[in-house]
Design a protein that fits this description.
The chain contains 10 helices and 12 strands.
């Protein structure tokens, strides 16, 4: 008799589990909070691991979001003016390392189209071709309202095979942009694209005194490369030192000076710093450059 009790207990638990799943998918309308409970219980029972739980939760979160919730704000958009010569906008491409940029006319409220960096490669390989204008390479800009559901937008990205949308407010003014990567990162976390530094290349020299540095660069490695003495008891990474110095989560483009170095945030999200531009003061630059 005692042998039957554990079996009955397991059977009852299994039946409850199945009944709960069945009730979720049979109910009209479905309650997302019930599904979240099921996912949490599955994780507690070790039926799914923590990464799977995070991704499932990310999918549910995306279903509740609007474009305004995940867009890159207007103030942080890297754009190219349609009248700029290559020499003027090339530094923008090098600093931001994006694969596509909105091209504007006079201001960000007038988006003429999207420029794919790869379309310019033929001119980088053939310097004799000078008779061209950026207008020739513009792709159509996709315009969406701030209220656009993110899950619907992801479906459109996949079906229509575009990767960026310009977000506008109710008056037609540009309020930001959204990429397919922004949506996927809500589900799977930070994604490194083809322009991101490899893990073994945390420090990259961009110019004689300018370096691109991963915010996750170990502090001892940074100190050795830049001949600095930031206290390793204060943080494990250079990003931690910079974040502490700011005293708040900085946005892209914000800068701060620590000693002889200027730190400019070149990439960040709402949770953490990702990439920093580090500029040496002229008097501190030496013939032996960091990361070379």
């Amino acid at each position: 008799m005692s042998d039957d009790n554990p079996h009955s207990s397991r059977g009852s638990a299994g039946k409850t589990w199945l009944e709960r799943i069945a009730s979720i998918f049979s109910a009209e309308p479905q309650d997302i909070s019930d599904l979240e409970d099921i996912i949490s219980e599955a994780a507690s029972r070790e039926l799914i691991d923590s990464d799977t739980k995070s991704m499932l939760q990310g999918v549910l979160d995306v279903s509740k979001m609007r474009a305004r919730d995940i867009m890159v704000p207007r103030s942080q958009m890297a754009t190219i003016d349609i009248e700029q010569p290559v020499s003027a906008f090339l530094p923008i491409l090098l600093e931001n390392n994006h694969s596509r940029y909105p091209v504007v006319n006079e201001d960000k409220d007038h988006v003429e189209g999207i420029l794919l960096v790869k379309d310019l490669l033929q001119f980088a390989l053939d310097p004799n071709q000078t008779d061209w204008h950026i207008r020739e390479f513009l792709r159509p800009a996709v315009i969406i309202p701030e209220s656009k559901r993110v899950d619907a937008l992801l479906k459109e990205f996949r079906q229509k095979r575009y990767h960026m949308a310009i977000v506008v407010d109710e008056y037609g003014g540009v309020s930001g942009l959204v990429t397919i990567e922004d949506i996927l990162e809500q589900i799977v976390g930070e994604i490194e694209d083809e322009h991101d530094d490899e893990e073994d290349n945390d420090i990259k020299k961009m110019a004689s005194r300018v370096f691109q540095v991963s915010a996750l660069t170990p502090l001892d490695e940074f100190n050795e490369s830049f001949n600095t003495d930031f206290d390793e008891e204060d943080a494990d990474t250079i990003g931690g030192i910079v974040l502490h110095a700011f005293g708040h989560m900085p946005e892209r483009g914000e800068s701060i000076q620590l000693g002889d170095l200027t730190f400019k945030v070149s990439k960040a999200n709402s949770r953490r710093l990702l990439q920093l531009q580090v500029i040496k003061a002229k008097e501190s630059a030496t013939t032996e450059d960091a990361g070379s």
